[in-house]
Amino acid sequence: MTQSDPSNPSLDALTTRLAETPQIFWGEPVIRGEGALHVDAVVHDLLIEHGQAPPGLDSLRLFRGGNASARNHLRAAAITAWLLGHPWFRGRDDLDHTILDLLSKGLREVVKIVDAEQFILDPDRREELVRMALAAFDVTPDDESAAHAADRLKALDSVERARLVKEASEARARQRKLEAEMRRKAAEEASSRYNRE
Fold first, then answer.
1. Is 170 exposed, middle or buried (0-12, 13-18, 19+ CB in 10 A)?
2. Mean per-residue pLDDT, 117-128
3. Is residue 168 within 8 Å of 43, Cβ to Cβ?
4. Range 61-76 average pLDDT
5. 142 backbone dihedrals φ, ψ, rounded to 5°
6. How many CB atoms lie within 10 A of CB 12?
7. What is the band of 86 on the pLDDT scale with cuts at 50, 70, 90?
């Protein structure tokens, strides 16, 4: 990541933009003819705004919403597109190549855990999405070092938190199983001693 730079974006400005996301961007995406928001059109327009050549149909296929399981990803992609429409992002032609990767692969894991609306409604999820976007572009918020920005993103990381919760739950289950096995063996030994007496 780059070092803190006065030309880097304001974290507050970007999280405020997310908090003020227009309703259409977090409405229902078009999936099989149902819904209101054509996310592929939103992504197409975003890429054009960033000075890219009109994207081909193949590059927008993911954003067409072929099935209901894609709903949360489509909603998160639309919300992220709104974020990337901020003037700071639009003024940077060196960021363009990463947009499709962020909207597709970059969101893939987090949308399995976080409902897209939380990127608007929850302050920590807003900050997480902003930091994910900045990290994807190898940029830090203004007045932050690369190390601080990376640490803060790690602290907010929903995917990592879910992994840790799952590991802790599995460890507790293993502990309970071990304790039950120890109790069973102790009972067997006590029963065996009693029978010998």
1. exposed
2. 96
3. no
4. 87
5. -60, 150
6. 12
7. very high
Distant-in-sequence, close-in-space partners of 16: CB < 8 Å, separation ≥ 6: none
Chain position carrying tokens 């977090």: 26
Q: What length is written for the chain?
A: 197
Q: Chain-wide mean pLDDT for the chain?
A: 84
> Helix/strand/coil (H, E, C) string of the chain?
CCCCCCCCCCHHHHHHHHHCCCHHHHCCECECCECCECHHHHHHHHHHHCCCCCCCHHHHHHHHCCCHHHHHHHHHHHHHHHHHCCHHHHCCHHHHHHHHHHHHHHHHCHHHCCCCCHHHHCHHHHHHHHHHHHHHCCCCCCCCCHHHHHHHHHHHCHHHHHHHHHHHHHHHHHHHHHHHHHHHHHHHHHHHHHHHC
Cα angle for residues 22, 47, 34 (degrees, 5° grid): 50
Nearest alpha carbon to residue 167 among 156, 179, 175, 155: 175
DSSP 32: T
Can you say how many angstroms the Cα of residue 41 is from the centroid of all Cα atoms in its chain? 21
Which pair of structure tokens corresponds to residue 158?
């929903």
Range scoring the smallest mean pLDDT among 34-38, 137-141, 164-168: 164-168
Which runs of E-coded beta strand occur in 150-191?
Answer: none
How many CB atoms are located within 10 Å of the residue 86 CB?
18
